[in-house]
Design goal:
469 residues; alpha/beta; Aspartate Aminotransferase, domain 1; 2 domains; seven-stranded mixed sheet; 15 helices; 15% strand; binds pyridoxal-5'-phosphate
């Protein structure tokens, strides 16, 4: 049994190596997105170093970080340029408040994000959830400033994930994350998403898109006068288990939002920064949102930073002699210079040539992953940019946990969501890394499922109820 109370430990920060760090972690740290009791007998893995796509544990074993450390890492661990940018900034100024003061990293980053996305007036936070909340608050406040305070409701897509603070949970349609806090949350309306796996066979893709867009249109016809914004994850709903929908749906959503006078918030926290194959996933549908949220890969996985970018029209609605009409939202570390420097170095690395090289890399990796596409128990193969996902047919109830352990034993950090297996590797993975990843995944599948046999029943996508990313 794990002792429940904190156990006193000697305070000796210089002692190396650290004795029983995993055990001490379980006593001292409340780990995220974790039922702590499940760590009985399976302590967290102690990581001491990183090197490109590799994590190195306390025993010197190398584990390929195939989930980019929860989707944040773009150019590998221990990345020389990002590291140098942060240390150079550290010699100048580590942090100053951003009210009444400014500094070069935050100005340059904001200018470069404007040049890259066509959206500006960058407002910074530290995490994805705070970006979601800033965008929702800005949207409702925009309508209030325009004399329409009743436009304060939101719409999300079924299965959407936008973070887990109380405000963000309003638009996060994941029962497992929301149900315990239901009384605290003002739940948004949800509309169906044209998940390509669920397309009825008799409908074409265009008809399926039209069908789902029709549901949104009916909602807007009734509720647009009370609705501030619709928030979407463009093209891929990662946390829902990598639900992929056609760009045509996003384009139609943009048209409907414009037609009915409702803001479109694009949450590109997971799919932005090149992950989808283009700098923004929205580009693939030729869509410009009213609000754009970025975080996760924004600093290449080095420091927490998020940003909301918006239009001149939105900005102008707050520009006034009256203080209360301004956007009076702040976080202590808003626009932190070290985080902005990391983001600038990340943008240097993520130029158009790199995006093109990533697309070629993705095609080569896809060929290496062919045995997974052909695996008799893997269905609904999805691939966009540097994201791959498959559903495991007839997966045992505890598939995700058992697969993660089996993959770790084979040198790959993989965390299926329910019965959805996915790869989201850093952009610096090479062919040898991809082969290692493929073989670890095939070995782990074999260990968990036994000898591969075709599914007897038609495959259904994972039930999201008990799925943890
Ligand atoms: C991770 C994520 C968030 C929340 O970001 P945090 O930094 O974890 O708060 C929001 N939206 C999407 C699409 C995400 O993937």
């Amino acid at each position: 049994m794990m002792p429940l109370g904190p156990t006193p430990i000697p305070m000796n920060r210089s002692s190396r190596p650290q004795a029983d760090l995993p055990g001490r972690s379980l006593r001292a740290v409340w780990h995220p997105c974790t039922q702590m009791k499940r760590h009985e007998g399976a302590p967290p893995l102690e990581i001491v170093r990183g090197e490109g796509v590799w994590l190195i544990d306390a025993q010197g074993r190398r584990v390929l970080d195939a989930v980019s450390s929860w989707w944040v890492n773009l150019f590998g661990h221990n990345q020389p340029q990002i590291k140098a940018a942060i240390s150079a900034q550290m010699d100048r100024i580590e942090h100053v408040m951003l009210a009444g003061l400014t500094h070069a990293p935050v100005v340059e980053l904001s200018e470069r994000l404007l040049a890259r996305t066509g959206l500006g007036h960058a407002h910074y936070g530290s995490d994805g959830a705070s970006a979601t909340e800033m965008a929702l608050k800005m949207s409702a406040h925009f309508w209030r400033n325009g004399g329409r305070p009743q436009k304060n409701r939101f719409i999300g897509l079924a299965g959407g994930y936008h973070g887990e603070t109380v405000g963000a949970l309003a638009v996060t349609d994941v029962p497992l994350f929301r149900q315990s806090y239901a009384p605290l949350v003002r739940v948004a309306a949800t509309v169906p998403v044209p998940d390509l796996r669920r397309k009825p066979a008799q409908l074409s893709e265009a008809e399926w898109v039209a069908h789902c867009a029709g549901a949104l249109e009916r909602h807007l016809q009734q509720h647009a006068d009370r609705t501030a914004a619709l928030i979407v994850e463009p093209l891929v709903q990662c946390a829902a288990g990598f639900v992929v929908y056609p760009p045509a749906y996003l384009a139609r959503v943009r048209e409907l939002c414009t037609q009915y006078g409702v803001h479109l918030v694009a949450d590109e926290i997971a799919v932005g920064m090149g992950r989808s194959g283009s700098f923004l996933a929205c580009e693939q549908a030729n869509v410009r949102p009213d609000f754009l949220c970025l975080s996760k890969g924004l600093t290449g996985g080095y420091l927490p930073l998020s940003v909301v970018l918006t239009t001149d029209t939105v900005y102008a609605a707050f520009y006034d002699d009256d203080v209360a009409r301004g956007f009076l939202h702040s976080h202590s570390y808003t626009g932190n210079p070290l985080a902005c420097s990391a983001a600038l170095a990340t943008l240097d690395l993520l130029d158009d040539a790199r995006l093109a090289a990533n697309r070629e890399l993705a095609a080569r990796l896809d060929a290496i992953f062919a045995p997974l596409h052909a695996h008799p128990r893997l269905t609904h193969a999805r691939h966009l940019g540097l994201i791959w996902a498959w559903d495991v047919a007839d997966a045992p109830a505890d598939f995700a946990r058992r697969f993660a352990a089996a993959a770790l034993a084979r040198g790959a950090l993989l965390r299926p969501i329910g019965s959805t297996l996915y790869f989201m590797p850093p952009y610096v993975i090479d062919e040898a890394g991809a082969e290692h990843l493929r073989d670890a995944a095939l070995g782990a599948l074999h260990a968990v499922l036994g000898a591969a046999r075709p599914s007897a029943t038609p495959a259904h996508p994972a039930a999201p109820e008990r799925a943890l990313p």
